[in-house]
Design a protein that fits this description.
Elements lengths: L12 H49 L14 H6 L15 E3 L5 E3 L9
Antiparallel strand pairs: 1-2
């Protein structure tokens, strides 16, 4: 029995399947993963903004608390000292949580607003 050594028989069915899977990951799965990770990051940041908003609201209802200055980073240490916030929260994407002129919390990465 002779073995065909060195002779190419063309592209096999396994090779085609591997190429199709590779193209699928490059064209569909990777962009979808990036979109989902950005969406999850935005939702998580929105939840953290909600936590800070509720803490600031309870702080504003307290007569002894000062009002948060607009367009400045939220003073989370002060909120923790006043027992309005139990843990420090921050944006997972590196944004800074600030308060606008209407005392609404926003993220400089996910919800950029002018600081002017």
């Amino acid at each position: 029995m002779k073995m065909n050594v060195g002779k190419s028989r063309g592209v096999s069915a396994y090779g085609i399947v591997v190429l199709i899977l590779l193209l699928f990951f490059l064209l569909v799965a990777i962009p979808r993963y990036k979109f989902l990770s950005r969406s999850i990051s935005k939702v998580a940041c929105g939840h953290k903004r909600g936590i800070l908003s509720r803490a600031l609201e309870t702080c504003f209802n307290d007569e002894t608390a000062e009002v948060q200055p607009p367009y400045k980073a939220v003073d989370q240490q002060k909120l923790q000292q006043l027992n309005h916030l139990s843990v420090s929260v921050e944006c997972g994407s590196g944004g800074i949580l600030k308060v606008d002129k209407n005392q609404r919390v926003y993220c400089t990465y996910h919800d950029p607003r002018s600081d002017w």
